Amino acid sequence: MSNETKYPLGDSPDDVETQNGTKLSEITLEKVVEGEIDGADLDIAPETLEEQARIADEAGRTQLAQNFRRAAELTLVPDDRILDIYNALRPSGAEKQKLHDIADELEDEYDATLNAAHVREAAEVYEERGLYDTNT
């Protein structure tokens, strides 16, 4: 995608690609029904999310831009691992060391530095609010 703003991105379907390189313009209901397009062809590309972040920044929506950037990082994390991380972040069952281990994993294995920082921040807030079980 170019640096000029093309919003909404769906209005330029030849410029938007999925994670495996399928152009948005190539995705049709007929191809899905015929089995030519499967779930992997629908995974959003991190570049698309980064472009959305850039557009949000230009519109002065910095928090939305940050959310898009975190989402872009998570495209490289397997879905089942994301679910595990989500469950580990539930305050009722959160464990301090486990959250720090998750942050290290996100940073070291997936280069997801924004998400690692987010998990570390959650760990600090949980501690400040006394949400950890004192036996963990």
How many DSSP E strands? 0
Flag low-confidence runs.
Answer: none
Return the structural class.
mainly alpha
- Number of DSSP helices? 6
Number of domains: 2
Mean pLDDT: 90
Largest sheet: none
Terminus-to-terminus distance: 47 Å
Strand proportion, as a percent range, falls in: under 5%
- What is the percent of helical residues? 40-55%
The gyration radius over C-alpha positions equals 18 Å
* General form: elongated
**What letter string, H or E per element, gives the SSE order?**
HHHHHH
Brief account:
The chain contains 6 helices and no strands.
Structural write-up:
The N and C termini lie far apart (47 Å). The chain is mainly α and 136 residues long. The chain is 53% helix and 0% strand. α2 packs antiparallel against α3 and α5 runs antiparallel to α6. The protein is elongated and about 55 Å long. The mean pLDDT is 90.
